[in-house]
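Changelog-linked ticket: magnesium ion example.
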Amino acid sequence: MATTKPTLVRAVMPPTVSRFMRSNAPVRGIIGPVGSGKSTGCCWEVFRHAQEQTPGPDGKRRSRWAVIRNTYRELADTTVKTWLSWFPESLVGQFNRADMTHVVRAGDVEAEVLFRALDRPQDISKLLSLELTGAGQAGRRRYVGGHHPGHQPAG
Ligand SMILES: Nc1ncnc2c1ncn2[C@@H]1O[C@H](COP(=O)(O)OP(=O)(O)OP(=O)(O)O)[C@@H](O)[C@H]1O
Ligand SMILES: [Mg+2]
Protein backbone atom coordinates (compact mmCIF):
# COMPACT_ATOMS: atom_id res chain seq x y z
CA MET A 1 0.00 0.00 0.00
CA ALA A 2 1.29 3.46 -0.84
CA THR A 3 2.40 5.51 2.14
CA THR A 4 1.17 9.06 2.75
CA LYS A 5 3.78 9.85 5.40
CA PRO A 6 6.03 12.76 4.38
CA THR A 7 9.62 11.98 3.45
CA LEU A 8 11.76 13.94 5.90
CA VAL A 9 15.22 15.14 5.01
CA ARG A 10 17.29 17.44 7.22
CA ALA A 11 19.73 19.88 5.68
CA VAL A 12 21.68 22.48 7.68
CA MET A 13 21.89 25.87 5.97
CA PRO A 14 23.78 29.09 6.73
CA PRO A 15 21.62 31.83 8.43
CA THR A 16 20.75 33.90 5.32
CA VAL A 17 19.92 30.83 3.26
CA SER A 18 17.90 29.54 6.16
CA ARG A 19 15.90 32.79 6.32
CA PHE A 20 15.29 32.60 2.57
CA MET A 21 14.04 29.04 2.97
CA ARG A 22 11.76 29.79 5.91
CA SER A 23 9.85 32.36 3.86
CA ASN A 24 6.83 31.15 1.94
CA ALA A 25 6.57 34.36 -0.09
CA PRO A 26 5.58 33.51 -3.67
CA VAL A 27 8.50 35.55 -5.07
CA ARG A 28 11.87 35.57 -3.33
CA GLY A 29 15.46 36.40 -4.16
CA ILE A 30 18.76 35.69 -2.49
CA ILE A 31 22.07 37.52 -2.89
CA GLY A 32 25.34 36.87 -1.13
CA PRO A 33 29.07 36.30 -1.46
CA VAL A 34 30.57 33.77 -3.85
CA GLY A 35 30.31 30.26 -2.46
CA SER A 36 27.94 31.18 0.37
CA GLY A 37 25.43 28.42 -0.37
CA LYS A 38 22.87 30.31 -2.49
CA SER A 39 22.55 27.63 -5.17
CA THR A 40 22.51 24.83 -2.61
CA GLY A 41 19.70 26.58 -0.71
CA CYS A 42 17.68 26.93 -3.92
CA CYS A 43 18.13 23.23 -4.74
CA TRP A 44 16.88 22.20 -1.30
CA GLU A 45 14.07 24.70 -1.56
CA VAL A 46 12.69 22.79 -4.56
CA PHE A 47 12.91 19.55 -2.61
CA ARG A 48 11.33 21.06 0.50
CA HIS A 49 8.28 22.14 -1.48
CA ALA A 50 8.18 18.80 -3.31
CA GLN A 51 7.92 17.13 0.11
CA GLU A 52 5.10 19.45 1.14
CA GLN A 53 3.01 18.74 -1.95
CA THR A 54 -0.35 17.11 -1.16
CA PRO A 55 -0.26 13.43 -2.15
CA GLY A 56 -2.38 12.21 -5.06
CA PRO A 57 -4.80 9.25 -4.79
CA ASP A 58 -1.87 6.85 -5.20
CA GLY A 59 0.01 8.50 -2.30
CA LYS A 60 2.65 10.15 -4.53
CA ARG A 61 3.55 13.79 -3.94
CA ARG A 62 3.93 15.04 -7.51
CA SER A 63 5.26 18.44 -8.52
CA ARG A 64 6.97 20.08 -11.49
CA TRP A 65 9.69 22.72 -11.33
CA ALA A 66 11.73 24.80 -13.75
CA VAL A 67 15.28 25.87 -13.01
CA ILE A 68 16.19 28.65 -15.39
CA ARG A 69 19.46 30.22 -16.54
CA ASN A 70 20.29 32.66 -19.25
CA THR A 71 22.26 30.22 -21.37
CA TYR A 72 22.34 26.49 -21.94
CA ARG A 73 26.08 26.57 -21.38
CA GLU A 74 25.71 27.97 -17.85
CA LEU A 75 22.95 25.47 -17.09
CA ALA A 76 25.02 22.48 -18.15
CA ASP A 77 28.33 23.69 -16.71
CA THR A 78 27.21 24.82 -13.27
CA THR A 79 23.52 24.61 -12.35
CA VAL A 80 22.96 20.95 -13.27
CA LYS A 81 26.25 19.98 -11.60
CA THR A 82 25.22 21.65 -8.34
CA TRP A 83 21.80 20.01 -8.51
CA LEU A 84 23.23 16.52 -9.12
CA SER A 85 25.76 16.97 -6.31
CA TRP A 86 22.81 17.13 -3.87
CA PHE A 87 20.41 14.84 -5.70
CA PRO A 88 22.68 12.21 -7.27
CA GLU A 89 21.35 9.93 -9.98
CA SER A 90 22.42 6.87 -7.97
CA LEU A 91 19.97 7.85 -5.21
CA VAL A 92 17.02 9.58 -6.86
CA GLY A 93 16.95 8.47 -10.50
CA GLN A 94 18.62 9.14 -13.81
CA PHE A 95 18.99 12.67 -15.16
CA ASN A 96 17.75 12.84 -18.74
CA ARG A 97 20.46 14.81 -20.55
CA ALA A 98 18.62 14.81 -23.89
CA ASP A 99 15.73 16.87 -22.53
CA MET A 100 17.53 18.32 -19.48
CA THR A 101 14.95 16.92 -17.07
CA HIS A 102 15.40 15.10 -13.78
CA VAL A 103 12.55 13.07 -12.35
CA VAL A 104 13.46 12.80 -8.67
CA ARG A 105 11.97 9.82 -6.85
CA ALA A 106 12.55 9.73 -3.10
CA GLY A 107 10.04 7.97 -0.85
CA ASP A 108 6.63 9.31 -1.80
CA VAL A 109 8.10 12.35 -3.59
CA GLU A 110 8.03 12.43 -7.37
CA ALA A 111 9.34 15.77 -8.58
CA GLU A 112 10.00 16.63 -12.21
CA VAL A 113 12.73 19.25 -12.45
CA LEU A 114 13.13 20.89 -15.86
CA PHE A 115 16.40 22.73 -16.51
CA ARG A 116 15.79 25.41 -19.10
CA ALA A 117 17.87 28.13 -20.75
CA LEU A 118 16.65 31.38 -22.24
CA ASP A 119 19.03 31.52 -25.21
CA ARG A 120 16.24 31.84 -27.75
CA PRO A 121 12.90 33.74 -27.70
CA GLN A 122 10.96 30.52 -28.47
CA ASP A 123 12.39 28.98 -25.29
CA ILE A 124 10.79 31.79 -23.29
CA SER A 125 7.33 31.22 -24.79
CA LYS A 126 7.66 27.44 -24.23
CA LEU A 127 8.51 28.12 -20.62
CA LEU A 128 5.42 30.25 -20.11
CA SER A 129 3.17 27.42 -21.32
CA LEU A 130 4.48 24.84 -18.82
CA GLU A 131 2.23 23.96 -15.92
CA LEU A 132 4.66 24.42 -13.06
CA THR A 133 4.49 24.13 -9.29
CA GLY A 134 7.33 26.63 -9.12
CA ALA A 135 10.31 28.10 -10.94
CA GLY A 136 13.66 29.58 -10.03
CA GLN A 137 16.18 31.59 -11.97
CA ALA A 138 19.83 31.13 -11.16
CA GLY A 139 22.73 33.24 -12.30
CA ARG A 140 24.81 36.28 -11.83
CA ARG A 141 23.43 39.71 -12.70
CA ARG A 142 25.88 42.08 -14.26
CA TYR A 143 25.64 45.74 -13.35
CA VAL A 144 26.49 47.75 -16.44
CA GLY A 145 27.29 51.38 -15.66
CA GLY A 146 25.79 53.31 -12.74
CA HIS A 147 26.45 52.54 -9.13
CA HIS A 148 27.56 49.02 -8.27
CA PRO A 149 25.72 48.04 -5.09
CA GLY A 150 28.71 45.99 -3.96
CA HIS A 151 26.80 42.74 -3.73
CA GLN A 152 27.60 39.48 -5.41
CA PRO A 153 24.17 38.59 -6.75
CA ALA A 154 22.70 35.09 -6.76
CA GLY A 155 24.79 32.66 -8.76
N1 LIG B 1 24.26 23.76 3.67
C1 LIG B 1 25.40 23.28 3.21
N2 LIG B 1 26.00 22.21 3.80
C2 LIG B 1 27.17 21.72 3.34
N3 LIG B 1 27.83 22.22 2.26
C3 LIG B 1 27.30 23.28 1.65
C4 LIG B 1 26.07 23.86 2.08
N4 LIG B 1 25.78 24.91 1.27
C5 LIG B 1 26.78 24.95 0.37
N5 LIG B 1 27.69 24.01 0.58
C6 LIG B 1 28.91 23.77 -0.22
O1 LIG B 1 29.56 25.04 -0.38
C7 LIG B 1 29.99 25.24 -1.72
C8 LIG B 1 29.33 26.50 -2.32
O2 LIG B 1 27.92 26.32 -2.33
P1 LIG B 1 27.01 26.94 -3.48
O3 LIG B 1 27.52 26.58 -4.84
O4 LIG B 1 25.61 26.58 -3.14
O5 LIG B 1 27.25 28.49 -3.23
P2 LIG B 1 26.84 29.73 -4.14
O6 LIG B 1 26.58 30.86 -3.19
O7 LIG B 1 25.73 29.39 -5.07
O8 LIG B 1 28.18 29.95 -4.95
P3 LIG B 1 28.41 30.91 -6.26
O9 LIG B 1 28.46 32.31 -5.73
O10 LIG B 1 29.71 30.44 -6.79
O11 LIG B 1 27.26 30.69 -7.19
C9 LIG B 1 29.63 23.95 -2.47
O12 LIG B 1 30.77 23.12 -2.51
C10 LIG B 1 28.54 23.33 -1.64
O13 LIG B 1 28.54 21.93 -1.77
MG1 LIG C 1 25.64 29.48 -7.14
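Closing comment: Example verified and attached. The longest strand covers residues 61-69. Confidence is low (pLDDT under 50) at residues 143-154.
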